[in-house]
Design a protein that fits this description.
about 1400 residues, alpha/beta, 54 helices, 20 strands, metal-binding, ND/Mrp_TM, transport, membrane, zinc
């Protein structure tokens, strides 16, 4: 029975690995694998119960003695082994279940599930090994599979480097392990673990010492002990489930090895002190590494180094039982911490809205609390019987408890009862920690032999660390900070001396005295122009959509995107192959292509015995992979080469800025094959993360809080050892020689490099676009001084150019013996051959094949005909093709939209009087709810921006930061401070005190070692609950809002009346009011989501819209406001009540607020309206479920709100394509697929175009920005989007996210927001604006707003005007005219059909 139970435990993950690889459907394979791993975890729990109540389980399946030492193959399970097996199986099951949803749709998800299951099997084989041979086999196999998990995204260079580094280190550790185990086996010739343990005393001391040292090396490598620790932080570039599995489970095998071989460890001379020393060094170093980090997952990774070091030190002290407890507690806590890391930004946002502490309580209160905690710890230890290991545990418990109490009681306004309760709870937890540790140690029955002296030394080290940490935080050493920031210093990784062996020369210091007086101003102007190429990137907790090229909206879209391609190497359109797939799918027709092609210049072309007109020739270039297809037949290619050689040269079209200079680093990289640009990127990005993430670091980068980026770096850079890796000598002198003003420093460096002033703007543009995220945030920070650490684009440029000058200068001296001057380097290196004019022969050959021109015909064509073919391909270059395809796709969408709006449909008309008039946000997600609500009952719906016309900032009671509840184009006109009842504020202060206690215990340098064990118990329950019911724990949304009295204190009556009137008139709701008027905002509930604000209302500043709806409703319900509105011609009757609501776009449920204020006579109507809303939401869930990946059942959609592994709670605004401002009659009853912003507008009451101007300059522009952000995040998700969510780590105080182990601040939207892993979910089209109004009103708005005119004329969006009288559609034409658009006479597609497979030569487009 026992063997069968162990076999089931092993069979679970083994079957999961096979199922993940063999089940055809990837989603079903993931479900099978996670279920089988869960089954294995249940069996492991049963095994633990069996072993806990009975003897150990030994079972030998085979005895091998034919080759080498004799050893057994089978299982051996004692209490510790059973606990470890349950830990590994449980974590694997949780990680697999999490990954099943987290990586849903990713191509590599199946392989990841298989590797997790296989690594689990290997670890179990090692853990249950009865012999050292089986243990070694399992150890090596688990390491190999772990490297495969680390290299999951092997297409990324950084991931490949991390995998190679880890593989090499693991090889060293594996060799050491095999060597150490071989030495233990050699004397007796028996490799069974029991035999080795029994005869360990018979071995000579030197052999045990050598074997112990080798085993320590193996354990140190696998558990990332200093100095073999660098592989662990680099693994953050793997998906989050891999990080959790690795940091929680796989690194623990080193502790398991030491505990299993405890008799060897204790018998080996000097082994225990050495292990304690190694562990303490790693523990202290890891604490320092973690203290300087500014991102969540980076901090967790470094803390793993510290925790593993402490566990190793416990083994070195002889406290193997405590080490086992620490191993389990840390593993569970770290798994939960990694898997929930995405929720840290939501937690930071919540904390910012919580009451801030008003000052510490009296010293007497703090002293009493501290005394109570220490007394509880001492009393518990004395009652348990004081021991050396117990004393160490008491020190840790006391440190964690004191830190928790000290931080929790930092608020003088904390109620006395809450303070007393918290103090007693912390003391009880500390005592329970000591009791649980003693009980668990006794139950495990592991060896214990701690020395009081050793424990005293260890405790002294930890106390010294705590004192040093307090000192360093206020008076930190720059050199030590840099050492910790680089995870323990840096070592040269390249040969820095020339071949002759001489020492590298110091950098040439630029001369500041050669500057022209106007150089500073020139640099400022050039930097301002360069900054226009990046969009402002706001903190992620107030995510608002912006056009990444907002600064270039003064130039046409085609030119701005061409500049971006040239300067940044970004992709600005979908590949032509993807557009050709759209053609095959029917989403674009040949008629659409023909409509957007320029008029043909040449006449028909004779191809043998047939003639092809110019349009057909261009269509052939577009419809076939002429520029990007497979190699053509050799004979056709040979003829094409010969025919092209006979033609005269043809100039190649010039792209904007094509002649701009490369940067110094780019020039050297191209000439020498180095990677200086990437190295400079890493250095600059690292510094930005350190400086701008200061609020999140426990030991922030030294210097005053208000010190600027360049000033701080200039003061500290001389102590940075990192540039020495590239042979840089004299960086400190270089930095000291640069002027303190960043613009002057940039000018000095540009002059030194030899960049002519006319090219400064282009040079700086290329520099900023290397890191557009950090550059964009610098632009935002410059416009919002005081909102965070100070930084400007000039600061960023000064730091970057200094690093570039240093690294490139060292490379130029080393390889070329030249100074870092562009002209000198260009003269000494081979020039790059210019691009050939015209086209290549393979392009001509593929075009001939597309036209069915064979070899003989191509050979006989006249030269003029060949020239026409060449010119056709040359006119439609890949970039030009993309522009044509984009225009055709937009033409197709407009054609289909017009067909839907023009066709005769049964427009629903609500009977008079209507039950209610509901005003929704114009968000595309509201379109579906409006449509279904109108179909469900007599309700009239309207569209308006979701802030409902009130541009205010709200501040919750006592909060340290407010929330702007208005579009980014506006500034709040008032700050509304919320007032709450005293008991409610006290309750919030109490909750915040508990959070401070938790955070302080976790951050304490000594108490953190005890904290993880206590937190592990809590995390166990959380993991079990989330694993069993992942969607049942949706975070509670804070719907509290200021009252009408709060609003009256912030805004005058005249202001309230002004905004109320503007809202009602813009909507067109000025008469005929129903008994109920519903103002319905929207928000999205999601868990563990850094991009939660991106799902909320953009018109409300990235916040939920319920608060704005409640404020607007409160204004409209005020009798004083209604009386003033009546004087202005808007009679809002007393019998009408304005109701506030909020549509949750994840669950499609609508919550109505302040129902206690509804008059009793209207309560039946409110009940009926609630039912209609619920019915509409249910219908919308059915519609949305069909569009989500995997087509989940509609009733399961609300669970996505609480699923912590769900990367796509909803599609948000993916698919947005049009903005319609018109009466509802134009769109009523039409299914627009939740792709259209719907704004109500009635021109009959807007004679001066005031309302139309408000719509076109506000909501329309915001919608265009949203559209362009989705556009660019789709076409280039790596550079213009946020990349994949699966490797994101939250940075700073809600600043943003990084990918993996560092790099650029991510901008835009994550890949999962615009695609399902195999294809885009968003069609990247520029916004189509449809305005139903007379032309003179639209002309008036465009004439008064040149910026809006630039957006339209520049092609950033399309504008179509629908004549209210005739229904004719027109678009702007040159000269201020309006060009009629022909009615769509042929509609090939009304709904998107299923895609046909692509031809063999074209690959699926994936971002």
């Amino acid at each position: 029975m026992d063997v069968a139970l162990v076999s089931v435990v092993l069979a679970g993950p083994a079957s999961a690995a096979l199922g993940a690889l063999t089940v055809p459907d990837p989603r079903r394979a993931a479900r099978v694998a996670s279920a089988l791993l869960g089954f294995g975890a249940v069996a492991a729990a049963a095994l633990l119960v069996r072993v806990a109540t009975g003897p150990a389980v030994p079972a030998v399946l085979a005895r091998v003695d034919t080759i080498g030492p004799a050893f057994s193959v089978g299982v051996r399970v004692d209490r510790f082994t059973a606990l470890f097996v349950l830990l590994v199986c449980g974590l694997a099951a949780v990680v697999a279940g999490y990954a099943r949803r987290y990586l849903d749709g990713e191509p590599g998800a199946r392989a990841l599930q298989a590797r997790v299951a296989a690594a689990t099997v290997a670890t179990l084989v090692m853990a249950t090994a009865p012999s050292l041979v089986q243990l070694a086999v399992g150890w090596i196999a688990a390491g190999h599979l772990l490297v495969g998990l680390i290299g999951h995204y092997r297409d990324q260079p950084r991931v490949r480097v991390a995998a190679r580094r880890t593989r090499r280190l693991f090889l060293v550790g594996d060799v050491a392990l095999v060597g150490g185990l071989a030495l233990l086996v050699t004397p007796s010739g028996d490799a069974d673990l029991a035999a080795v343990r029994a005869t360990v005393g018979d071995r000579p001391g030197w052999l045990l010492a050598v074997a112990g040292a080798l085993l320590l090396v193996a354990a140190g490598v696998r558990s990332a002990q200093v100095p073999a620790h660098r592989w662990l932080p680099s693994t953050l570039d793997a998906p989050t489930p891999v990080s959790a599995f690795l940091h929680a489970g796989m690194v623990n095998v080193a502790g398991f090895l030491m505990i299993t071989l405890a008799p060897v460890v204790t018998a080996a001379p000097a082994m225990m002190p050495a292990m304690a020393l190694v562990g303490l060094v790693a523990a202290v170093s890891g604490l320092l590494f973690a203290a300087v980090r500014t991102d969540v997952k980076g901090t967790l990774a470094r803390s793993t180094i510290a925790q593993m070091g402490f566990m190793l030190a416990q083994c070195g002290l002889g406290a193997f039982g405590l080490a086992a407890v620490h191993l389990v507690g840390h593993a569970v806590y770290k798994a939960y911490a990694f898997l929930s890391a995405g929720g840290s930004l939501q937690a930071q946002t919540r904390d910012a809205a919580a009451p801030r502490p008003v000052g510490p309580p009296p010293a007497r209160s703090r002293a009493l609390a501290a005394t109570a905690v220490v007394a509880a710890v001492l009393a518990t230890e004395l009652l348990l019987g004081a021991t050396a290991s117990g004393a160490l545990g008491a020190v840790l418990a006391a440190a964690a408890a004191l830190a928790a109490v000290r931080s929790a009681l930092a608020d003088r306004a904390l109620p006395t009862r809450a303070a007393l309760t918290l103090t007693l709870a912390v003391a009880a937890l500390a005592s329970a920690y000591l009791v649980a540790g003693r009980v668990a140690t006794g139950w495990l029955a592991l060896p214990t032999g701690t020395s009081p002296l050793a424990v005293g030394v260890a405790a002294g080290v930890l106390v010294a660390v705590a004192v040093a940490g307090a000192v360093l935080r206020h008076r930190g050493s720059a050199a030590l900070w840099w050492w910790a920031w680089h995870d323990g210093g840096v070592r040269p990784r390249r040969r820095v001396a020339p071949a002759g062996g001489t020492t590298p020369a110091a950098l040439t210091t630029p001369r500041a005295d050669l500057l022209d007086r106007s150089d500073g101003a020139r640099v400022v102007a050039a930097a301002t122009a360069a900054t226009d190429h990046v969009g402002a990137v706001a903190p992620l907790d107030a995510f608002v959509a912006v056009n990444p090229l907002a600064g270039r909206e003064s130039v046409p879209f085609a030119r701005a995107t061409a500049e971006l391609r040239d300067l940044a190497g970004a992709r600005t359109h979908l590949p032509a192959a993807e557009y050709r797939r759209w053609l095959r799918d029917g989403r674009v027709s040949r008629a659409d292509l023909t409509a957007v092609l320029p008029p043909p210049v040449p006449g028909p072309v004779a191809l043998g015995h047939r003639r092809v007109d110019a349009t057909a020739l261009h269509l052939a270039v577009l419809e076939h992979p002429v520029h990007d297809g497979p190699p053509p037949p050799a004979d056709l290619l040979a003829v094409a080469r010969r025919r092209l050689a006979d033609l005269p040269a043809c100039p190649r079209p010039r792209t904007p800025d094509a002649d701009g200079p490369l940067t110094l680093a780019e020039t050297l990289d191209r000439a020498l094959g180095t990677r200086i640009v990437a190295d400079v990127d890493d250095l600059v990005a690292g510094w930005c993360a350190a400086h701008l993430g200061r609020p999140a670091a426990r030991w922030p980068v030294p210097g005053p809080a208000d010190e600027g980026c360049w000033a701080r770096w200039r003061r500290l850079a001389g102590a940075d050892p990192a540039p020495a890796r590239w042979g840089v000598v004299g960086l400190a002198a270089l930095v000291d020689a640069l002027p303190p003003a960043p613009e002057q420093a940039v000018a000095v460096l540009l002059r030194a490099v030899g960049v002519p002033p006319a090219a400064w703007s282009t040079y700086l543009s290329r520099s900023l676009l290397r890191l557009p995220g950090w550059a964009g945030h610098a632009r935002w920070a410059q416009a919002h001084p005081g909102a965070g650490p100070a930084v400007s684009p000039l600061d960023l440029l000064a730091v970057r150019l200094t690093y570039e000058y240093a690294l490139a200068g060292a490379a130029a001296q080393r390889h070329l013996e030249l100074p870092p001057v562009l002209d000198a380097i260009a003269a000494a290196t081979p020039t790059t051959l210019p691009r050939a004019a015209g086209i290549t022969p393979d392009v001509l050959a593929r075009l001939a094949g597309a036209l069915d021109v064979d070899v003989a015909t191509l050979a006989c064509l006249p030269g003029e005909t060949v020239a026409l073919l060449r010119d056709a391909a040359l006119r439609l270059t890949p970039s030009r093709q993309s522009e044509v395809w984009l225009a055709a796709a937009e033409h197709a969408y407009r054609r289909r939209l017009r067909h839907r709006l023009d066709r005769d449909v049964d427009r629903p008309s609500a009977p008079a009087p209507a039950l209610a008039q509901a005003v929704f946000c114009i968000d595309v997600r509201s379109e579906g709810l409006r449509r279904h609500l109108e179909a469900a009952g007599p309700v009239d719906t309207y569209g308006f921006a979701g802030f409902f016309g009130l541009p205010v900032r709200t501040v919750t009671a006592g909060a340290r930061r407010g929330r702007d509840r208005c579009p980014v184009l506006m500034r709040p006109v008032a700050t509304v401070e919320e007032t709450r009842a005293a008991h409610e504020v006290s309750r919030r202060r109490s909750r915040q005190a508990w959070r401070r206690a938790y955070a302080a215990a976790k951050a304490d340098p000594v108490g953190a070692f005890a904290f993880v064990e206590v937190a592990g118990v809590l995390a166990t329950a959380a993991l079990l609950l989330r694993a069993v019911a992942p969607g049942r724990f949706a975070p509670a949304a804070d719907h509290t809002a200021p009252t009408a009295a709060d609003l009256a204190a912030a805004m005058t009556l005249d202001e309230q009346v002004y905004y109320a009137e503007a809202t009602l008139r813009t909507v067109g709701l000025t008469a005929g009011f129903a008994p109920l008027v519903l103002l319905c905002g929207h928000g999205a509930t999601s868990a563990n989501n850094p991009y939660a604000a991106a799902l909320d209302c953009g018109a409300c500043g990235g916040n939920r819209g319920g608060v704005s709806a409640r404020l607007a409703a409160a204004v409209l319900n005020r009798p004083e406001v209604r009386a003033a509105l009546a004087e202005r011609g808007i009679h809002l009757p007393d019998g009408t009540h304005v109701l506030a609501g909020e549509h949750d776009t994840v669950t499609d449920e609508v919550r109505l607020f302040d129902l206690d204020a509804v008059p009793a006579r209207l309560l039946p109507a409110v009940g009926e309206l609630s039912g209609r809303l619920a019915e509409a939401g249910a219908r919308l869930r059915v519609e949305r479920a069909a569009r989500l990946p995997g087509r989940p059942r509609p009733h399961r959609l609300p669970r996505r709100a609480g699923d912590w592994a769900q990367v796509r709670p909803e599609w948000a605004l993916a698919g947005n394509a049009a903005f319609i401002a018109a009466p509802r009659e134009l769109t009523a009853g039409v299914d627009l697929g939740c792709r259209t912003f719907l704004h109500s507008y009635d021109h009959t009451g807007d004679r001066d175009a005031t309302a139309l101007e408000t719509i076109m300059t506000g909501p329309l522009v915001v919608a265009a920005w949203i559209n362009l952000q989705y556009y660019f995040s789709t076409v280039d998700p790596q550079r213009l989007g946020a990349g994949t969510k699966t490797v994101h780590t939250v940075l700073g105080d809600a600043l943003g996210v990084l990918s993996g182990s560092g790099g650029d601040l991510r901008l835009g939207l994550p890949l999962q927001s615009v695609g399902d892993g195999t294809r885009p979910a968003h069609d990247p089209l520029r916004l189509l604006a449809v305005i139903q109004a007379p032309h003179h009103l639209v002309d008036a708005v465009l004439g008064r707003n040149p910026g809006l005119r630039q957006l339209v004329d520049g092609g950033w969006m399309s504008l179509t005007v629908v004549d209210p009288r005739t229904g004719e559609w027109t678009e702007p034409a040159p000269g201020g005219f309006w060009r009629p658009l022909p009615a769509p006479h042929v509609v090939t597609v009304t709904e998107l059909p299923a895609r046909r497979p692509a031809p063999a030569e074209e690959k699926e487009y994936t971002a």
